[in-house]
Amino acid sequence: MHTNYCRFLQAVIIFCALVLLSASPVFADDVFIKGYASAVLEREFGLAPASLDVRDGTIILRSEDITNADRDKVAAALSKIKGVKEVMIQDGAQPAAQPLETEPPVRHTANNKETLFAPLIADPRWPHFSMSYQNYLHDKEFTHLFAASFGETLPLYTDDGLFGGRWQVAIQAAGFIIHDLDTASWDLINEDYRGGVTFFYRRNALSGLFSIYHNSSHIGDEFILHNNVDRENFSYEAVQTILSYDIKGPYRVYGGVEYIFSPDPKDLKRWAVQYGFEYRSPRAYLHGWFRPVAGIDFKNRQENNWHNETSLRMGVQLESEKTLWNKLQFMMEYYNGNSPNGQFHDNIIEFVALGAHFYF
């Protein structure tokens, strides 16, 4: 117990140190966004629009100030600035700060896709596409593993919501697998499947989710044959809610609770809490391609006597219209706690990893 507590403190200290070392002294407030947007417009389009304004993360421009440029490319470039919620390009001669009554402004979000709740980048079970090499430390059973996930968040409907916010309903589904690289045929060890309906909400820097989902776990056939183990039924339905808040643009904190119902086995304990912290650099480097990112995620489950499950990831996010993906992250990873793999949820594991994560 003392050893696990020390490792937990080490992970937190390392994470905080790296974030502070890589953090920019400039926060992504309206003043910063306006200055950054001016530089982007001048550097990439040769523009210096007098109508440029920023209010609560919304960039406002008049169309007559950008007549010599493709408005969609302008909006796409400005949408990539950290802290920008949307880009409004207004037609007509009215002042940029005044909304038009006759014709609504053209609204753009990054890559023309509205994201109300950003992915939890250090959550081992956030639905997305990924692959990683994991090196287990001090483990008697496994050493070198390949892990992958296949899934995504599929928005179905988005609309204006209460209190001036936006809401969205989406399907979230994913599969998670691990293979033992130390066997001749890279034996499949475990596969988990998650699927459900999620409701997202965002108002300015505050966002949240409410999800109802099913989770089931299956042990690999090759692992059973080679190790002569018994398979355990492990599945449940759960409701989950998480609130998230963006602090001055680059920083994000979140936390929430989860309750399991219809568990198998029946004695599976029901409650869990999740919380974490993220950093996304307001600046992208090497011609805007690489943005430093980091995240630390904690889970405490009643089933595991509230022991910490710590997931730490840090690396760079590749951002370019020339790539096939909206977001591609290359991450160094560390995990300590009960295994997130359902058939092995009683096992305490520790590993370091190198991973690639794709978010559409």
Overall structural class, as computed from helix and strand content, comes to mainly beta
Rg over CA atoms, rounded to whole Å, is 22 Å
| Share of β-strand residues | over 45%
Mean pLDDT: 83
Annotation, overall tally of beta strands: 16
Largest sheet: 12 strands, antiparallel, barrel
Helices and strands, in N-to-C order?
HHEEHEEEEEEEHEEEEEEE
The low-confidence runs, each spanning 5 or more residues with pLDDT under 50, are 20-28, 93-112
Net shape: elongated
Helix content range of the residues, please? Answer: 10-25%
Straight-line distance between termini: 40 Å
In spatial order, strands of the major sheet run 5-6-7-8-9-10-11-12-13-14-15-16
Number of helices: 4
Please write out the topology.
Layout (H helix, E strand, L loop, with lengths): L1 H21 L7 H16 L7 E3 L2 E5 L8 H9 L6 E5 L15 E3 L20 E8 L7 E17 L5 E15 L7 E16 L2 E14 L1 H7 L6 E14 L3 E14 L6 E10 L9 E12 L6 E11 L8 E12 L9 E12 L1
3D structure, described in words:
By secondary structure, the chain is mostly beta strands. It contains 4 helices and 16 strands. The chain has helices at 2-22, 30-45, 71-79, 221-227, and strands at residues 53-55, 58-62, 86-90, 106-108, 129-136, 144-160, 166-180, 188-203, 206-219, 234-247, 251-264, 271-280, 290-301, 308-318, 327-338, 348-359. The strands form 2 sheets. It has a 12-stranded antiparallel beta barrel with strand order 5-6-7-8-9-10-11-12-13-14-15-16. Strand 13 (290-301) and strand 14 form a beta hairpin. The longest helix has 21 residues, at 2-22. The protein is elongated and about 75 Å long. The relative contact order is 0.14. The model is unreliable at 20-28 and 93-112 (pLDDT under 50).
